[in-house]
Amino acid sequence: MRLQLIAAVSALSLAAGLAGATAAFAQEAPVAAAPAGDVTDAQLTAFNTAMQKVKTVTAAVQGGTPTAEQQAEMAAAVEASGLGVEQFNAISGKVSSDAVLRARLAVLDAPASSGVAAAVTDEEVSQFASAMVKLRELAPAGGATPTPEQQTAMAAAVEESGLSRERFNEVATAVSADARLRARVQLADARRG
């Protein structure tokens, strides 16, 4: 069972670009199947809590085999979160393969927003994300200054999103300064597919 935990940590670490100590264990035990239905925010929060501790333990392994004590510490962290090891592994498998779930996890993991960012509604986040997709398509290559025609098309794309240009600029400024708001925009992008 502990090797399954390590396999899940390995899969998540690889998906998150944190390949390291437990990669060799990914083939030793299959990750449990994902739970039926969606992962709730409460389950994702518990998973995130456990994962923070598990990552700390796996960082100490440094490419070697985890000791029995380290494996027990990882299992205890998972169980202390309120999840069983099998449920943790199932959620880990889903997080590894589901962009929306990874984005939800990033939102939970980001510090709380404050100021302007805290006042941005979910609808505005969706509108902003939609406008950004269009703006990326219209933007000149290599960071060149947009032509007057491109500027007009970009302004129209913002307004078509439902945001005023002024509100779009406020949200854009807040996104650049606020990790949680950036994560919320990434979640809106992931949900759009």
TrEMBL record:
KW Signal (keyword) present: yes
Signal sequence extent: 1-26
Keywords: Signal
Domain of life: Bacteria
UniProt-recorded name of the protein: DUF4168 domain-containing protein
Organism field: Brevundimonas goettingensis
